[in-house]
Amino acid sequence: MKILIIGGSRFLGYHIAKRLIQDGHDITLFNRCHTPDDFGSRVERICGDRNDGDFFFNALKEVEFDVVIDMIAYKATDSQTAVKTFRDNVEHYIHISTGAVYLVTQDYPCPLREEDYDRPLFPRPRTNDEWWMYGYNKRKCEDVLREAHQRHGFPVTMFRLPFVIGERDNTLRAYSYFIRLMDKKPQILPDSGLVSQTYIYQGDIVNTVASNLQNALSIGEVYNLAQDEIVTLREFVHKAAEILVVDVELVDIPSKILAKTSLGTSFSPFFGRRPFVMNANKANRDLDFSSTAFDTWMRKTIQWYIEEYRGDPPENYWLRDKEMEIIRRYKDALKSV
């Protein structure tokens, strides 16, 4: 099959491209060509900025693809340009979305099902609105694509993802915890790390995309892709410590206290104040989706960071000395009570 991947050079997109190449498909990558890959002549490349809608349209409007996989649509205009470009020259358009589309809704339930998208939004926060804007704008992408399907039969399938973890994870969110375990200093868990979440291993998304390229049943549908196991942040850290064979001292500090310090909770990127659990029953039924066991993907991910990662520490790791100072002050305050 002739497949275009918009993105495809860093983390999830790289893994999808690698798998589809192995499966014998004819792959074209559209990205800025800033991040090197090891695909060589096995892929075609179109270098361009997704934000330049005119270039995107002119570069791709007359090229026919069997499948387009869009990894980097972040605002409504991205999806509008995609519909304009591929409306008459693609058989299946796969949009990678996010579970953050639920986080901006009021009183979202647990677990989350696809129909829970249709809930009232809570107002945009006056401060710290980065996550709100991300979820809101990804909703606008979905709305554009849904309307295009309803009005014109645009052949879209949308996948909503929770935190994605695995080899080559350039966000370094999971590594934020691993590196703190490896330095063997105490680790703060906001609110004791007891909020439940679901994650997904990159390989499970790759398998689902690769095996559903021609699934007509998925056209016009949206699917949650998430692991079966529900995991607290505390369990996440304990599992990582077990794999790394280190003893860990967890220091439980309420997030309200941390919010009053200059540290906040940015050092703990998987921290959340409410359970965030996505139900994948629909994907199990329609896509033959299955998830890798928590223990398995944690071991694979940690092994990759230890053996292959050569980049800088996460930016939040520069807060480590400040964390130690807050731990000391918090312990002193508890002793004086």
Topology:
Elements: E1 2-6, H1 12-22, E2 26-31, E3 43-47, H2 53-60, E4 65-70, H3 76-86, E5 90-98, H4 100-103, H5 130-152, E6 156-161, E7 163-165, H6 173-182, E8 187-190, E9 196-197, E10 199-201, H7 202-211, E11 222-224, E12 231-232, H8 233-244, E13 250-253, H9 255-259, H10 281-287, H11 294-307, H12 320-335
Parallel strand pairs: 1-2, 1-4, 2-3, 4-5, 5-6, 6-11, 7-10, 8-13
Antiparallel strand pairs: 9-12
**Whole-number radius of gyration?**
21 Å
Q: Provide the low-confidence segments as ranges.
A: none
Biggest sheet strand order reads: 3-2-1-4-5-6-11
Largest sheet: 7 strands, parallel
CATH architecture assignment name of the largest domain? 3-Layer(aba) Sandwich
Strand proportion, as a percent range, falls in 15-25%
User: For the record, what CATH class of the largest domain applies?
Assistant: Alpha Beta
The number of distinct helices, counting runs of at least 4 residues, comes to 12
